[in-house]
């Protein structure tokens, strides 16, 4: 909403007001930052802008800045806390309110609060972990187990801040920015406010918004710093100490909740934080005089976590500033004086700095040259921020560091790009957990708890050792080594050994379970492969296994319960899905040829081919995911232990898990789901599937007429433990069931 005529009317009065103030208010001397050239020749009070913290509510600062500029109000000093430090810092560098707004609109706020690299940037090996384990880690150090210092590590937030603030990276003295600037943080050891007046401006912003428990604290000159809202959320005194005669204060602090709103422990904790923040803020607000301006944007219905509603919050700030036009206009100057003020401000923002040299500050065990090969920025050319962010995300996607950020440095008149690859002291090696819970309401349930230990850098090339175990209905144990062979990490060898098991039922014509069996395999395997562009891999491997069939319920199987397998496998894998649980873009595919040979220890010679392909497309909050699976035994001679065993939720729903078996299997599936609401940390979906396919023993039986039609309706949540589904499945073979399922259902086999 443009202020329009209301602002125009006050502009007419502003010139007279400014003249009156210049006569009544003499210039005041302060121990303050160096006077800007804009002040010279203008006899007016020095105006400080104070922007409070308040999470997403701080977007309102942008709307206020728009009105301040429209009213020709010359700002001399900027001080901010938390989100206020970000908006204020960008303004102090020289970005306009419109440029700041455009930057905010271009941010994927869902990803900002995801601590992990986008899947497109993760190494292919790390992508495959997604199908088995949660991304949350428990650090393993010489001192024992350790948890992450924050709920999220802050990598994505730091990349966003770097992108926003890099035009001012070459300025390390905040008095030398376009406008003198201060960010406020809190010393977590003492609780005292800390004034940040120099250094990397993005790091200062990051320290000022480091919410305790949510984001790791930032080390700064021997102090451990967290969110400035705790120490001084409305730092009016700092602006005064910098020389401000008059302050414009924008307070976006969250309001205190009512009794009716305090219905949970989370709500109570948030209220306590707000109370602590408000006490110091109120003390600061009591120092305001009649000539100062206080703006409190509305929209109390939008919280500090409403990052997706940035447009509404910016508008709320603009509306509140328009309502304060009468007060603000007293600080306006004439068009001529405002133009003089603007032209006198130093131009410090470098939007396209030319890079003369590149350095990498590598704190991990990985070889420096590996990282250097991943940075594509050319010297003698302007900084390519988009390309650099992709490169840094790829380095972070190796999952060997706590964060990968950058800065600019001046040396001998040259501008250097410095890439900081920080180590992860709390998790040099780590544990990952996985939980699978399958409940088919009519037949019982199965559960498995899985855990894997990873040492990701046993050498400078990033060799990896893993040991994993699973306990529950389908126990397993595995030991593996993975070794890249070159510094571009394209070629690798891998080996693994262990045992695994899985359960499958045998049903009668009424789909009632008559028997329940478990396959148990002990195996060893080696493979070599080549990775292409982090999305595709080609692998050739040898595998040997021995096993047996164990009866859990019912009659034991006829024939020999023991079996031997041995052979080789050639496999091509592709994975560019953006999410393995509820994808909305990308592809996933696998083509494998498995050849079992008696000469390699198998009971029989037989060949099997597996093909799977999935593709996701999204419009708005709606996603269509299509998937097909085709599996065949070429000579239809696979033994019982090698039959394709399929069926269950999302795999001909209505059947039990692995109810179907045969020499051939085919599935064609379409899933349509919609995201409900805008809960960033717990996405919830509702949808349905349509499926057709079957398992066959004779190739002549394969036809659509001999296929099963199935479908399901479900509600799913993308939880930190994995996807959780409540669903009902039904098919035209007189089978139906309710499912409660925790675990991945679209994982490739």
Short note summarizing the structure:
With 749 residues, this protein is α+β, with helices and mostly antiparallel strands. The strands form 5 sheets. It has a 16-stranded antiparallel β-barrel. Strands 1, 2, 5, 6, 7, 8, 9 and 10 form an 8-stranded mixed beta sheet that branches. The chain has a 3-stranded mixed beta sheet with strand order 12-15-14. A hairpin with a 2-residue loop joins strand 3 and strand 4 (144-146).
For the CA atoms, what is the radius of gyration? 31 Å
Overall 3D form: elongated
Average pLDDT, rounded to a whole number, is: 88
In the sheet with the most strands, the strands line up as 16-17-18-19-20-21-22-23-24-25-26-29-30-31-32-33
Low-confidence stretches: 1-41
Total DSSP helices: 16
Beta percentage is 35-45%
- Largest β-sheet summary: 16 strands, antiparallel, barrel
**Structural class by helix and strand composition:** alpha+beta
Strand count: 33
Determine the N-to-C terminus distance: 55 Å
- Helix content, binned percent: 10-25%
């Amino acid at each position: 909403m443009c202020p329009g005529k209301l602002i125009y009317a006050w502009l007419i009065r502003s010139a007279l007001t400014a003249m009156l103030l210049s006569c009544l208010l003499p210039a005041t001397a302060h121990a303050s930052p160096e006077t800007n050239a804009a002040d010279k020749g203008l006899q007016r009070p020095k105006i400080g802008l104070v922007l409070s913290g308040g999470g997403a509510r701080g977007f309102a600062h942008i709307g206020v800045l728009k009105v301040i500029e429209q009213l020709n109000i010359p700002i001399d000093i900027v001080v901010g806390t938390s989100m206020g430090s970000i908006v204020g810092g960008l303004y102090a560098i020289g970005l306009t309110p419109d440029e700041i707004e455009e930057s905010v609109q271009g941010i994927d706020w869902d990803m900002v609060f995801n601590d992990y690299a986008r899947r497109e940037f993760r190494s292919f090996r790390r992508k495959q972990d997604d199908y088995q384990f949660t991304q949350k880690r428990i650090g393993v150090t010489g001192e024992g187990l350790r948890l992450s210092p924050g709920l999220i590590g802050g990598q994505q937030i730091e990349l966003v801040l770097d992108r926003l603030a890099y035009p001012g990276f070459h300025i390390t003295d905040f008095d030398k920015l376009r406008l003198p600037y201060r960010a406020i943080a809190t010393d977590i050891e003492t609780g005292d406010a800390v004034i940040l007046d120099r250094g990397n401006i993005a790091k200062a912003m990051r320290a000022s918004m480091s919410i305790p428990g949510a984001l790791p604290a930032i080390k700064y000159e021997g102090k451990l710093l967290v969110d400035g809202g705790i120490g001084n959320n409305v730092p009016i005194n700092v602006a005064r100490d910098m020389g401000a005669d008059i302050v414009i204060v924008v307070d976006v602090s969250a309001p205190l909740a009512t009794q009716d709103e305090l219905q949970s422990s989370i709500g109570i904790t948030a209220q306590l934080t707000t109370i602590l923040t408000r006490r110091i803020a109120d003390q600061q607000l009591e120092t305001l005089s009649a000539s100062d301006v206080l703006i409190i944007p509305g929209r109390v219905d939008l919280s500090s976590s409403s990052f997706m509603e940035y447009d509404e919050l910016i508008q709320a700030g603009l509306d509140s500033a328009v309502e304060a036009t009468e007060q603000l206009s007293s600080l306006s100057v004439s068009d001529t004086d405002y133009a003089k003020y603007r032209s006198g401000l130093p131009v410090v923002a470098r939007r396209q700095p030319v890079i003369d040299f590149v350095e990498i500050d590598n704190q991990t065990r990985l070889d420096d040259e590996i990282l250097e090969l991943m940075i594509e920025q050319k010297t003698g050319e302007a900084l390519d921020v988009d390309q650099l962010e992709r490169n840094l995300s790829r380095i972070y996607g190796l999952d060997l560091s706590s964060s990968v950020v950058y800065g600019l440095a001046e040396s001998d008149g040259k501008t250097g790009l410095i890439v900081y690859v920080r180590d992860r002291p709390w998790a040099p090696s780590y544990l990952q957990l996985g939980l699978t819970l399958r409940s088919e309401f009519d037949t019982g349930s199965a559960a498995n708890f899985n855990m894997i230990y990873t040492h990701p850098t046993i050498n400078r090339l990033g060799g990896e050792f893993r040991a994993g175990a699973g306990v529950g209905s389908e126990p397993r144990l595995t030991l593996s080594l993975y070794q890249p062979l070159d510094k571009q990490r394209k070629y690798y060898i891998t080996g693994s050994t262990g045992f695994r098991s899985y359960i499958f039922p045998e049903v009668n014509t009424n789909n009632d379970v008559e028997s329940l069996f478990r396959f148990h395999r002990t195996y060893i395997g080696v493979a070599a492969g080549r990775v292409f562009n982090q999305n595709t891999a080609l692998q050739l491997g040898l595998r040997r296994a021995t096993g047996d069939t164990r009866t859990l319920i019912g009659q034991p199987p006829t024939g020999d319960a023991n079996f031997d397998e041995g052979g080789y496998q050639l496999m091509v894998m592709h994975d560019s899905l953006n999410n393995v649980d509820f994808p909305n873009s990308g592809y996933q595919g696998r083509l494998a040829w498995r050849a079992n040979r008696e000469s390699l220890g198998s009971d029989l010679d037989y060949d099997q081919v597996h093909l799977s392909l999935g593709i996701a497309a999204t419009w708005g909050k709606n996603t269509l995911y299509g998937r097909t699976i085709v599996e065949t035994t070429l000579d239809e001679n696979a033994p019982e232990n090698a039959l394709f065993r399929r069926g269950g939720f999302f795999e001909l729903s209505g059947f039990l898990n692995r109810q179907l078996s045969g020499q051939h299997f085919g599935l064609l599936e379409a899933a349509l789901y919609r995201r409900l609401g805008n809960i960033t940390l717990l996405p919830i979906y509702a949808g349905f599937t349509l499926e057709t396919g079957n398992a066959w023993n004779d190739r002549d039986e394969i036809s659509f007429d001999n296929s099963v039609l199935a479908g399901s309706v479900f509600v799913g949540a993308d939880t930190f433990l994995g996807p959780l589904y409540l669903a009902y499945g039904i098919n035209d073979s007189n089978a139906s069931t309710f499912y409660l399922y925790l675990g991945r259902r679209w994982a490739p086999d």
